[in-house]
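hiii so um. not sure if this is the right channel but i have a protein structure encoded as tokens and i wanna go backwards to a sequence. like what aa goes where. can anyone help
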């Protein structure tokens, strides 16, 4: 469901902008980021107003022990070629410029969102919600949470042009179509870069 960008196996990670498009072999594509992310021992709930979360859902920074549960959500939400493996998630979790948040309901992980910083913008790399928990406001709550965990500035993401459900969700939380990219996901598979405008840091 929704967006997926990085594809990899244990010991090998590929990177691209959100959605699994053009890849750079051998490393996760990222921009420099200096804001530290809480480690497992000090993980705190991501800053999001309670009214913006569905009842009974808690959103927090992922802990190391959460990664197998996140990998299960990835496998349920995406086809095999797009689902992040446990090895890929471990690499992303360890990178200090990456934010990995999870949504829990009654202790079970039902969704996740991954973001990072690209120049003056924040970027949504991946958004996944367990199919059994979709259409319950969890995806929107995760998007708002990742925005708050990144510095100020516009937010960007990539989505397949034909993924109308995802594009509708993104518009509901303030994203607008920015750039059409033909063949972004492969021949005949166009992508759309969407942007949510926010004040620049210090603005």
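sure thing!! here u go:
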């Amino acid at each position: 469901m929704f967006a997926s960008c990085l594809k990899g196996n244990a010991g090998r990670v590929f990177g691209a902008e959100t959605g699994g498009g053009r890849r750079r072999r051998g490393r996760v594509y990222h921009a420099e980021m200096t804001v530290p992310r809480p480690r497992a021992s000090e993980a705190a709930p991501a800053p999001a107003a309670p009214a913006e979360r569905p009842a009974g859902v808690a959103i927090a920074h992922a802990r190391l022990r959460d990664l197998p549960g996140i990998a299960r959500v990835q496998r349920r939400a995406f086809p095999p070629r797009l689902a992040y493996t446990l090895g890929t998630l471990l690499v992303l979790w360890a990178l200090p410029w990456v934010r990995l948040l999870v949504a829990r309901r009654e202790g079970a992980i039902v969704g996740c969102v991954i973001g990072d910083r690209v120049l003056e913008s924040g970027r949504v790399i991946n958004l996944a919600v367990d199919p059994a928990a979709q259409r319950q406001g969890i995806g929107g709550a995760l998007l708002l949470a990742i925005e708050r965990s990144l510095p100020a500035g516009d937010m960007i993401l990539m989505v397949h042009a034909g993924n109308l459900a995802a594009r509708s969700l993104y518009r509901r939380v303030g994203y607008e179509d920015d750039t059409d990219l033909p063949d972004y996901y492969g021949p005949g598979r166009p992508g759309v870069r969407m942007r949510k405008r926010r004040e620049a840091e210090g603005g």
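oh and Residues 8-24+46-154 form a domain with the Aminopeptidase fold (CATH 3.40.630.30).
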